[in-house]
TrEMBL record:
This is C-type lectin domain-containing protein. SUPFAM superfamilies: C-type lectin-like (SSF56436). It comes from Mytilus galloprovincialis. The lineage of its organism: Eukaryota, Metazoa, Spiralia, Lophotrochozoa, Mollusca. InterPro entries: CTDL_fold.
Length: 356
């Protein structure tokens, strides 16, 4: 599937996963700043997104125009000239020429998607826009402890190391935890559940879907229950779920989280992903350079979710997922997060996480 565009603001319970449509016309820079204030970025138009807008919106009767996350060098385009090629990515490449900002143009009469470019700060060039991907500003370092402790003891342990039991409940965190336990660092552990920082008044004895949406403000442990995460084998499709139990009379593993200065990249040596969209390649880079470039690419709104490093020629291939949907009840999310890999000697895939 591609991305379904809605004609009005689409809000969900988890705003980090929703796409926001802003009808007010702004300059590109003002639109970018607005999205950034919402922990989002302007919309990235992948090849599949472009095709989906064309194929899945037959009801649109008039032309549509909105800003995107893309930029293009002014040496290759002319103001106001329309192009029908894939959307340019000059703002994430090493170019020295001044850049123009790109807006999508949908031609309703012939169902065609094109793009044009204009000055980013020009008050006479104003368009509406979508705020899309949730940019993770709060990077976390997560440590899983297999020891079985009561909730109060686990909570005290995390606090002593200047951390806390798991607090983050975003959809992105749920997806990443699923990855960690399905194929990542924690896939070989025997942990089947672990405590979180959340407490509630209800004793939840059947698995609930992520995120934990019930909380209690009381501090009396005898009056509340403590929430814990249930892992892959007990929940369909390797997605994390949660339940609650007695805080003082039950024991289980726990996860401490702390603030981190860096994103985490998990390496898969001698493997490359299959079926992902290649954004661009860059030569003569170290692995560290590639990590910096991947982070900078995501910062401007072009999601870099992993890169492949070729140790033979020091080349990086920056990639992201193409399979995305916009669902009325769940908002914007990746439809398929599990990546298939192919053995290729000399290549290492580095998958990017905001939590580790």
């Amino acid at each position: 599937m591609g991305v379904i565009f809605l004609p009005k603001c689409q809000s969900t319970e988890d705003e980090t996963l929703s796409t926001i449509y802003v009808a007010e016309r702004m300059t590109w820079q003002d639109g970018y700043d607005y999205c950034k204030s919402k922990r989002k970025r302007l919309k990235y138009i992948s090849p599949s997104t472009k095709a989906a807008f064309r194929d899945q919106n037959p009801h649109i009767a008039s032309d549509v125009t909105f800003w995107t996350a893309h930029k293009v060098t002014n040496e290759t385009v002319t103001h106001g000239k329309r192009f029908y090629s894939e959307f340019p990515l000059d703002n994430i490449k090493d170019v020295s020429s001044p850049l123009l900002c790109v807006y999508l143009v949908y031609e309703a009469d012939n169902k065609r998607v094109g793009w044009e470019a204009g000055e980013c700060h020009d008050n006479s060039v104003r368009y509406p826009f979508f705020c899309d991907i949730a940019f993770p500003t709060d990077k976390k370092s997560m440590t899983l402890y297999e020891a079985n402790l009561t909730w109060p003891n686990a909570n005290t342990f995390c606090e002593k190391i200047d951390g806390s039991l798991l607090q983050e409940m975003s959809g992105n965190t749920g997806l990443e935890l699923g990855d960690f336990f399905h194929s990542g660092n924690w896939s070989n552990t025997r942990v089947s559940s672990f405590w979180t920082n959340h407490t509630l008044l209800d004793h939840v004895t059947t698995v609930e879907q992520w995120p934990i949406d019930k909380t209690s403000n009381t501090t009396k442990l005898e009056d509340i229950y403590c929430a814990y995460v249930i892992l892959k084998g007990q929940v369909d499709k390797n997605i994390v779920g949660w339940m609650s139990d007695f805080c003082q009379n039950s024991s289980r593993s726990f996860l401490c989280e702390k603030e981190s200065d860096e994103f985490y990249f998990e390496p898969y040596e001698n493997y490359k992903p299959v079926g992902l969209n290649v954004l661009f390649e860059a030569r003569q880079l170290s692995v560290t350079d590639c990590m910096v470039k991947c982070n900078a690419t995501t910062e401007v709104g072009i999601p870099c979710e992993m890169f492949v490093w070729n140790s033979l020629n020091s080349t990086c291939y920056f990639m992201n997922y193409e399979e995305i949907v916009l669902n009325i009840s769940h908002g914007y999310y990746h439809e398929q997060r599990i990546t298939n890999y192919k053995f290729v000697e000399g290549l290492t895939t580095y998958k990017r996480y905001s939590n580790t």
